[in-house]
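2 proteins. here.
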Amino acid sequence: YHTETMGGNVFDWPCGVLKIATGGGKTELACALYQGIKVPTVFVVHLKHLIKQTRDRFKFYGVDTGQIGDGVFDPDEDGVTVATIQTIHNTLKGGDSAKIATFIRAQQIFFDEAHLCAASLDKGNQFIMLSRQFRHAYHRWGLTATPFMKDEYSNQLLMGATGDVLYTVTNDQLIKAGYLTKPTITIIECPPTKGPRSWPEVYASAIVLNRWRNLRIVDELLKAPTPAIIMCNRITHANIIANIAKHKGIVLPVVQGSTSSADRAKIIKDLQSGSERAIIVTSIYDEGVDIPNLRTLIFAGGGKSKIANLQRLGRGLRKSPGKHEVLVIDFDDSANGAILKRHSAARRKLWKEEGFRVEERK
């Protein structure tokens, strides 16, 4: 299905967003684009654990890459360099002309998870500043499943960095074509709790510290197919769930921002091999992590962001041998005030708009 992108859209225009659902092969498309437009290229990621994953995908297709980020400065001046936006930004800010000269003349640039250009003014402006520095980059591509979902100004930041959408591949297309696994969404109704209903106090009392809800998360995990991931928004919440699981005889590793790249890679490898039945992750793994055999996703953190929830869902839709569906467990927090009611309604609406089967129970 990428043939249409390569032939009909991309080579006719030198920049734009390639909107491809998570699991649809965005990095594969970047490899093909590089092989078709073989000029010095920088592939920008926003998280250090994505460096190795991206370099491995390029290597699989016979393309060796350089690296800037995660403590390494080893660019490939004539080929592809995979770099974190933070390290590129700091290098430019530091003013080391010799280092800057090794990557700044790139003629092609990819922004992975390009929706982050519009995620916030700080992040968006950082992407814009970086984009402006690569003055020789005639070819500029944004890779994302969720572009142009913010306010008008934020969306213009993305437009300025990469251009408009050139091509779209949806979850529904990939599921029908057999490339992704169809999810079943189970929404569990949570009873009301005592406590404040204003933000952010309601989030702490009704989600993070909600004993009934946290016990139910672990109980659902015990019954669910594995491997599984519990997704949280806050480290405190992840640790609480891990402690409850420990009291029930299950050790669940917690992956967060401070977890080293080596430890992250080992934990993911153990989850894929079956050495770990489940792990708990914070928003550090909303994007980028690739676990094709994942069977269950538990949305423990709530929230209403369409971008974040689609990105999280994408962790579980990838195909693997013997995997025919993925179970997604969500929670309806409507009984705990107007704010959480709106958040729960937004997620339910999203699942139905995507055409997924939704089951509700108590």
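next one coming up
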Amino acid sequence: MFAIQTDIIRKRRIMIVKGTKGKPKLLMGGFEYYRNNSRGSKTYWLCARNRYLRCAARIITCSTTGELVIKNQQHNHEAQPQEKVDSKDEKKPEQDTSSSK
């Protein structure tokens, strides 16, 4: 069962990144989700456009099992191209300034 969940995650291209304010943001299928709540091993995510457009799309992730539950995937707005979402939130890797001898 875990392998199936992993395949689903790979196909949907899910990433968790830091947002502009340093808080975690889940990216999936061109949509952004912010962490709404956490209880135990479950994290509840709401569409980032929830506040502005009343989008009701939700995702629940479980850190212990790797399970991904899509509660509502009906967005009332268009997705952003994934490249645009990625480039906005990705940080460049820090360069190693230490030298080894």
